[in-house]
Amino acid sequence: MPKGKQGKLIDMVGVKFNGCEVIRRAKNKAGVSSAMWECRCFCGNTFDAKGTAIRNGKRSSCGCGRGVSLSKRNYKHGGTNTRLYITWINMRRRCYNEKDDAYARYGGRGIEVCEEWRNDFLTFREWAEENGYNDTLTIDRIDNDSGYYPENCRWVGYDVQNQNKSNAVRVPFRGELMSRKEISEITGLTYDEVRWREEKGLLGRI
């Protein structure tokens, strides 16, 4: 088993560097004696790197070309590890990392991040601050079948976000399309009562 200079393996799992994070131990390639680690890049891709290369700063990304400069900009402006920065990382991860649990619902069906946001956290942060972001809100796509770009995104509470999910049922009610949750809040009926009336064709009588 590859070890550090003192002969003892240095556990790198969970170590964060330059917006990347070590996920797990990786299998060593033939002829490589140093411990290898699987890492998740800030761009969403995964890559293997030597522990020594991570610790001495020689490996800063998957090779996407923006590692060092992006890290310096985020550090300078206090962005790294903020809630908004994590939102940005996760947004790109679910669109471009096929190993992400949410990829099938995002990147797998063509949801993309606009180029100006995908490659620059500061541009994304500027838009967020100009459009009402605070740490109690979450990013929401107005058209659930379109991607992440300024004209299609807003900051909302979790209640609105949940209503906008692709599995939210919306039905005609009082001349508008509403979710069962919205109808329940307006009428005072329970969710199950709304669904029963919908199935019986009785919503129009409320």
Walk me through the structure.
- By secondary structure, the chain is an alpha+beta fold.
- The chain has 3 domains: 1-67, no CATH class; 82-157, no CATH class; 170-205, no CATH class.
- 33% of the residues lie in helices and 17% in strands.
- The protein contains 8 helices and 8 strands; from the N terminus they run E-E-E-E-H-H-H-H-H-E-E-H-E-E-H-H.
- The protein has helices at residues 51-55, 67-76, 83-96, 115-118, 121-130, 158-163, 180-187, 191-200; strands at residues 16-17, 20-26, 36-40, 46-50, 138-141, 153-156, 170-173, 176-179.
- The protein has a 4-stranded antiparallel sheet with strand order 1-2-3-4. It has a two-stranded antiparallel sheet with strand order 5-6.
- Helix 7 crosses helix 8 (191-200).
- The radius of gyration is 23 Å and the shape is elongated.
- The model is unreliable at 1-6 and 65-77 (pLDDT under 50).
